[in-house]
Amino acid sequence: MTLRLIATDLDGTLLDPSSTVTPRTRAALDAARSRGIHVVPVTARQPIGLRTIAADAAFDGWALCSNGAYAIHLTEGRMLFAEELPAETIRTLAAALRASIPGLLFASVREGGETFVAQHGYAEIADLSDHKRDPETMGGVPLEQVLAAPSLKFVIRHPELAPAALFETLKDLGLTGFEATLSGAPFVEVMAEGVTKATGLARLCRHLDIDRSEVVAFGDALNDVEMLRWAGRGVAMADAEPVVQDAADETTASNADDGVAQVIERLLG
């Protein structure tokens, strides 16, 4: 294939189990960039979460955050697009879920991912790794404030129930008007209707005049499935769930064994 863009998930994919970029992976990314190939992180993280690894990975161009809802140029600060979930949809969704599951907690990602509005009690069950934010900075507001404005990503969490159980309950409600997924984080993530990593990547590729056949994409979680199917070559990680591996054209080694670097090295010859 003619390779012009590498789209890669971060956690569980590009980053090793300690959430760092290994020397081998950095060398592979640099080799791709030296040939004029775009390297684009496509992540559930917000820009604040990218900043912690940007230097190690040399990310200085376009990035897709919030599972494809938000595109930003990391050096220039330019926003290409932002797809927000309407407040009315958020309120309808939260009301239906609360009627089914007591004890839920919610948070809203706003303003290009720079603002995190969390319900009272959310910070108490959060870790730094969850949102790449110190829980002590999350504060806490009444639920009405969390639901009062549009959101790039709406977060649904429970102190005891697993995200997969919340996700199944959400699907069983039969509601429409949003896109929900799991990224491996301890919560369900909800974006605007139709928004996935694939739709965000497609919009960025149109902007860059790159065909999908010229894209290789890497991922390991449910929120990567659409992107792996869309790309000219989709690559799943060795420890990805079966649905993710089924969506890909091939499976590489795990993130602990530089699986992304192995594929890039092979494609670059």
Automatic annotation (TrEMBL):
SUPFAM superfamilies: HAD-like
Pfam family, one: Hydrolase_3
Transmembrane regions: none
Classification via InterPro entries: Cof, HAD-like_sf, HAD-SF_hydro_IIB, HAD_sf
Gene Ontology MF term list: magnesium ion binding; phosphatase activity
Domain of life: Bacteria
An annotated GO cellular component: cytosol
PROSITE patterns the record matches: COF_2
NCBIfam families the UniProt entry points to: Cof-subfamily, HAD-SF-IIB
Protein name: Cof subfamily protein (Haloacid dehalogenase superfamily)/HAD superfamily hydrolase (TIGR01484 family)
Native organism: Microbacterium saperdae
